[in-house]
Recover the amino acids of this structure.
């Protein structure tokens, strides 16, 4: 089942419809509409519905607060027919009078294949519509996309159209998306054989690049939405992580770099493994989770916590997940946040507005393609968009900073905005700084990164630097590897790992001894990406320390990525059993006959269970 609920929209480009303030619309609690229950102290308001939008699926804001909504035509035709007819569309909704309710629409793009994600970035809307991701741009400011570019070609379209979801902008400036289904796709890799895979994946690539790299591999049917912690860790929603049993099936997953997840399935054969499959943050049951977002803390989420909200299509609700550090990964405290009383309420997306309120997208009852729980399509039962906010919360003044000068601000002015309490402002400042170029920006970033007393500002300076070339911006990031705050360290490690910065190898090797297990994990990930054999002794030593499964994975995967069999072989004679285990697994997964049967077979009878069990796993 591919229930991200495939995202979609319908024709007539360029038509603009004004509907006033929608004062006559029924509210979330009025008869004829689903009743939505929220926790005490919150309220929910219906902010868009017919005739503005009938079957919304996913949405994203631009910097001016206009909401781009993928809308379904209501079609459940075979995907080949939908690809030929392209009956869906993208709407642009506007709140003209600033009351929080949308009252004007423009058809931004018609004739779309089933849209399964919307992302506004740098003046364009990116839309996943299998088999491709499209970049849609309005070049003449008339509200209609007149330039369509095929940004990514997946080249597969299976019967459930779960081949592609997204894309999603990471805080590091990379664009992420997910591959579901089990259709074979090929990805070119300069200097390496192409990646040919049927597995599920999270992929990413730089906006201006064409080379994609996998982040996660799995045997789950359908990874859907990707959201990010403040330090850049990825959380995803996914269906059929496990075969249904004992209330388990779908899940929220910490997408650890290089991790292999999901069911034991032939599609994951041939992908590097570090041992048993990695598990989820939490199980969701037969929920068909789709949209996922992190609360920034601007509205009602504690900014000191990592809190995520997930739209559960099958369960008619949005759930709240507060991450709790657990070794090198997370568990979560899970509670219901929005619950509907109608089986025709199907939330497919949840996003945060600039004032911190949440928008919940209910697609209605039209969808049944590949969905066992929705076999009766009801295209006449429309969806809507709802806003959840703290009751009595004072309005946020100019939440998007539209009154600020964004036309020609100085680097110093933009650096100052990194400390702004409004998330939309500091995020826009990051993008504006990156566009100024390294010569103008890097000196100011170095000052902000080293001198700000705020860990948040230091993190944001690092996220900005990652959008720039290593040669210029490395000097702004490397010192933060020794920052006094572990969260800032983790962001810096993420940066030098993305860049594959060899100058950072000594500092990263030192961080393998950090007291923070998350710092140790990301340091190992970075060393693996960099691929410098100087790190092998430090990684083998790190394997001997107490590690949970995710920490163990990170160290072992780093050894596999570095791929120096001679240096890793020394781990087989180490006194520490866990080092010997890591070396065994890494050598086995390197391929190229790095490990032979003459080494493994005698270990099948080893006295130490750690070594013996690993030898049997390899065998």
């Amino acid at each position: 089942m591919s229930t991200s609920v495939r995202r979609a929209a319908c024709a007539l480009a360029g038509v603009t419809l004004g509907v006033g303030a929608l004062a006559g619309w029924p509210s979330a609690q009025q008869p004829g509409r689903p009743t939505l229950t929220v926790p005490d102290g919150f309220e929910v308001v219906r902010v868009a519905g017919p005739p503005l939008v009938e079957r919304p699926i996913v949405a994203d804001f631009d910097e001016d607060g206009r909401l781009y909504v993928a809308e379904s035509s209501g079609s459940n035709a075979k995907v080949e027919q939908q690809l030929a007819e392209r009956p869906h569309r993208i709407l642009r909704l506007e709140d003209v009078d600033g009351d929080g309710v949308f009252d004007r629409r423009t058809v931004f793009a018609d004739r779309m294949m089933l849209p399964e994600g919307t992302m506004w970035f740098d003046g364009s809307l990116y839309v996943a519509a299998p088999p491709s991701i499209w970049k849609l741009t309005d070049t003449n400011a008339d509200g209609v996309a007149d330039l369509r570019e095929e940004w990514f070609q997946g080249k597969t379209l299976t019967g459930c159209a779960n081949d592609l979801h997204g894309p999603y902008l990471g805080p590091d400036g990379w664009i992420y998306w997910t591959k579901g289904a089990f259709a074979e796709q090929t990805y070119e890799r300069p200097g390496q054989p192409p990646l040919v895979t049927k597995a599920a994946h999270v992929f990413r690539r730089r906006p201006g690049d064409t080379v994609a790299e996998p982040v996660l591999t799995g045997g789950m049917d359908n990874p859907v939405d990707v959201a990010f912690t403040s330090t850049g860790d990825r959380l995803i929603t996914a269906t059929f992580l496990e075969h249904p049993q004992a209330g388990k099936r779908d899940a929220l997953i910490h997408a650890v770099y290089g991790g292999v997840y999901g069911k034991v399935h032939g599609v994951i054969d041939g992908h590097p493994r570090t041992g048993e499959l990695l598990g989820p943050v939490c199980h969701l049951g037969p929920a068909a989770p789709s949209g996922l977002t992190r609360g920034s803390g601007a509205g009602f989420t504690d900014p000191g916590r990592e809190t995520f909200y997930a739209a559960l299509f099958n369960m008619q609700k949005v759930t709240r997940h507060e991450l709790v550090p657990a070794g090198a990964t997370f568990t979560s405290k899970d509670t219901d946040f929005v619950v509907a009383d109608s089986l025709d309420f199907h939330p497919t997306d949840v996003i945060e507005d600039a004032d911190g309120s949440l928008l919940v997208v209910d697609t209605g009852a039209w969808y049944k393609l590949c969905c066992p729980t929705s076999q009766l399509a009801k295209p006449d039962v429309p969806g809507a968009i709802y806003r959840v906010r703290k009751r009595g919360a004072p309005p946020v003044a100019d939440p998007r900073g539209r009154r600020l000068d964004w036309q020609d601000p100085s680097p110093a002015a933009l650096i100052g905005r990194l400390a702004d309490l409004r998330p939309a402002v500091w995020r826009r400042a990051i993008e504006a700084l990156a566009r100024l170029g390294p010569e103008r920006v890097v000196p100011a970033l170095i000052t902000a990164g080293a001198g700000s007393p705020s860990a948040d500002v230091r993190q944001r300076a690092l996220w900005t630097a990652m959008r720039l070339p290593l040669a210029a911006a490395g000097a702004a990031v490397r010192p933060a590897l020794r920052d006094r705050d572990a969260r800032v360290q983790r962001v810096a490690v993420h940066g030098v790992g993305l860049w594959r910065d060899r100058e950072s190898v000594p500092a990263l090797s030192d961080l393998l001894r950090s007291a923070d297990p998350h710092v140790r994990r990301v340091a190992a990930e970075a060393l693996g990406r960099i691929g410098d054999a100087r790190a092998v002794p430090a990684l083998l030593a790190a394997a001997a320390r107490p590690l949970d499964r995710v920490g163990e994975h990170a160290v072992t995967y780093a050894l596999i990525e570095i791929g120096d069999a001679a240096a890793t072989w020394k781990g087989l004679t180490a006194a520490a059993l866990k080092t010997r285990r890591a070396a065994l697994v890494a050598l086995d997964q390197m391929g190229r006959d790095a490990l032979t049967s003459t080494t493994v077979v005698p270990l099948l009878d080893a006295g130490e269970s750690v070594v013996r069990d690993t030898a049997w796993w390899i065998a």
Q: What stands out?
A: The first strand starts at residue 16 and ends at 18. Confidence is low (pLDDT under 50) at residues 1-31. The first helix runs from residue 79 to 85.
